[in-house]
Amino acid sequence: IQDELFSLREDSFVAACREFGRLGIRWRFMTRADTIDRKMIHAALDAGCFEMCIGIESGSQKILNILNKKTTVQDNARVLDLAQTEGLRTMAYLISASPGEDDQTIDETIAFLKAHPADGYGLMIYTPFPGTAVWNDPEKYGFVLPRDYGQYQYLNRQGTGISLHRDRKRAIQLHNRLFEFVKSASSFVRKDRVVV
Q1: Which UniProt keywords apply (predicted)?
Q2: Structure confidence by residue, pLDDT tens digits, 73-90
Q3: Residue 20 near residue 48, CB atoms below 8 Å
Q4: How many domains in the chain?
Q5: Minimal CA–CA distance to 45: which of 75, 81, 84, 78?
Q6: Cα separation of 77 and 120, whole Å?
Q7: Beta strands at 49-57 and 189-190: parallel, antiparallel or unpaired
Q8: What is the CATH number of the domain that holds 182?
């Protein structure tokens, strides 16, 4: 299920799980860390769910706040630990080169991932969306943004996101540090690679 709000209402989530179970399909879903609990994980497992994908973005509360994620590092730890305890595979999605990213926030993220490991990781490079604080005031956050959103590539196949940083070399170093950690911590990493 490609909708992180799928788990927003427990009653709807459990009803959907029952239907998936009746159909006998294997499935996975995306969620926010602040919308899932033990009952919902059990309902998903009982219905053939094999993986929960969580957009944790960072192990640094500073970065979560800058991104206006409205979740906490503790929310992310709770749901990763709960899924592991209950036997549900997890995919943790991370964002590198976020506004405010520095060595300390990368260290915090790596320490978080060591303490609360996922089964796999997806690592994306930060891309500001129109209407966000970074889009509206890029200079404040150290970005140089083309105003034609058609120039952006969501999956960052050619490093487009990194090139938006005023200090591209530093952003690449931070991204590559996090990428190398998640690559070594898991046999499964999605969507990104070392940037040169």
Answers
A1: Iron, Iron-sulfur, Metal-binding, S-adenosyl-L-methionine
A2: 999 999 999 999 999 999
A3: yes
A4: 1
A5: 84
A6: 15
A7: unpaired
A8: 3.30.750.200
